[in-house]
Design brief:
Elements: H1 11-18, H2 59-87, H3 96-118, H4 120-124, H5 128-154
Helix pairs in contact: 2-3, 2-5, 3-5
Length: about 160
């Protein structure tokens, strides 16, 4: 009798639900209707039954993502412009501190953007205040890098 019970308490509920519902596998989109195990037969990924919010709150995540992407786009394009300018043999160009600022801020923005994408679920588990703080921090960092760049260019 012990071997008839599922190894996980939710597996029975999962297979019962999938017995008569068309649900795509989250990894490979294979139709899981009639599934009798806790793994997708197509990609062999383990499936679990979870409770999630019907409408996840991702506004702060999107705001942080936009801030990091704005910083990466602005600083990255300016950095590439200055590299092309110097590669053409221009004698007078932007001061080196501004180019170094662009390089550092571009690397920081790329790393921050990658971490936001990679750790989206962990970001969503933060409190609302912490999510807002991270989103504001992304935009403040973008503004600070622009201010730093223009302060070197004006000198």
């Amino acid at each position: 009798m012990a071997d008839t019970q599922p190894p996980f308490p939710s597996q029975g509920h999962l297979t019962a639900y999938l017995a008569d519902h068309d649900v795509p596998c989250p990894a490979c989109t294979y139709n899981l209707r009639g599934l009798t195990a806790d793994r997708c037969p197509e990609c062999n990924r383990e499936l679990v039954l979870q409770i999630r919010l019907a409408e996840p709150r991702i506004g702060a995540w999107i705001a942080a993502l936009a801030g990091a992407a704005a910083m990466l786009g602005f600083n990255g394009l300016l950095f590439l412009y200055f590299l092309a300018y110097m590669a053409r043999g221009r004698r007078y160009g932007p001061p080196w501190p501004s180019v170094a600022t662009l390089l550092v801020s571009t690397v920081i923005a790329a790393f921050g953007l990658a971490q936001l994408i990679k750790r989206r679920r962990a970001f969503g588990n933060l409190s609302a205040g912490a999510r807002g703080t991270w989103a504001a921090g992304a935009w403040l960092t973008t503004a600070a890098s622009a201010i730093a760049f223009f302060s070197f260019v004006d000198n």
